[in-house]
Amino acid sequence: MTECTERSPAIVATDVSRIYQLEGVSVPALRGVSLTVEPGDYLAIVGTSGSGKSTLMHLLGGLDRPTTGTLVIGGRDVATLSAPEMARLRNETVGFVFQSFHLLARTTALDNVALPLVYRGLGRRERRERAMAMLQRVGLAHRMNHRPNQMSGGEQQRVAIARALVTDPSVLLADEPTGNLDSATGQSILSLLESLNAEGVAVVLVTHERDVAARARRQIVMRDGLIVAGDPVSSAGWSSADTPEESSAPPSSVEAAP
Ligand SMILES: Nc1ncnc2c1ncn2[C@@H]1O[C@H](COP(=O)(O)OP(=O)(O)OP(=O)(O)O)[C@@H](O)[C@H]1O
Ligand SMILES: [Mg+2]
């Protein structure tokens, strides 16, 4: 249904800004960011707290629109889309994994995973079959009837990943997917994301952990609403004038991946 071909970029953000309005005050969370996500990409976004990472992820996932600049998802300029068209594009193109899982509390793992398929108009039986297959894929078939509070953090995160993948998206956006997990569980979530990436799903993840970021094929570093290192660097890019004590995202970490 889209005009996008196999080889065209999955997502292209060109000079996007996002300015929140809060009680009459403008909060510029993004101040001119350009970024392309290619099919099959594996991109890590790092940067200090408040630098705009989640805001950028929300834009890339079509959960929000830029204040200025151009955002093209799956070949479609979001400025031309109505809210229902945006919802449909999201449902067809991207999967989103949040740090805090965002699962429905009173709903079983199986029904949480099946939920995005409701918007596809699939019948209950097919929804449950596909959700079951996806739970199997993340190693949780035996937890299908558990509700979130009956599962561990790692299991809930795997349910969230299964829900993000059940619509067969070309891009998986994960905002600190290992942030709430112990390191062994975090490693298994990362391995899962990497095996999906090996199958061709583009993965974009936000992380505070340098060893996690180093595993990605590309890294970008954000600060104060700008990409200050990585590719492409904004014109107002990183300079020695930036506070040197910020250790979470030094420019030397860029392209450190093997
Ligand atoms: N809904 C909102 N209204 C007003 N300001 C907001 C809103 N959401 C975020 N902000 C502000 O925008 C800036 C960027 O926020 P964002 O959540 O993108 O940061 P982040 O890089 O994801 O940080 P963290 O690492 O802590 O998750 C912050 O200064 C934040 O206070
Ligand atoms: Mg965030």
Explain what the structure shows.
The chain is of the alpha/beta class. It has a single domain (11-248), classed as P-loop containing nucleotide triphosphate hydrolases (Rossmann fold, 3-Layer(aba) Sandwich), CATH 3.40.50.300. It has 7 helices and 10 strands. It has helices at 53-60, 83-93, 109-118, 124-137, 153-165, 183-198, 210-214; strands spanning 11-22, 25-37, 42-47, 68-73, 76-77, 94-97, 171-175, 202-206, 218-223, 226-229. Strands 6-7-8-3-9-10 form a 6-stranded mixed beta sheet, sandwiched between helices. A 4-stranded antiparallel beta sheet has the order 2-1-4-5, with helices on one face. Strand 7, helix 6 and strand 8 form a beta-alpha-beta unit. Helix 3 crosses helix 4. The protein is globular. The protein starts with 10 loop residues before the first strand and ends in a 29-residue tail after the last strand. Bound molecules: adenosine-5'-triphosphate and magnesium ion (MG). Adenosine-5'-triphosphate is lined by residues 20, 22, 27, 29, 47, 49-55.
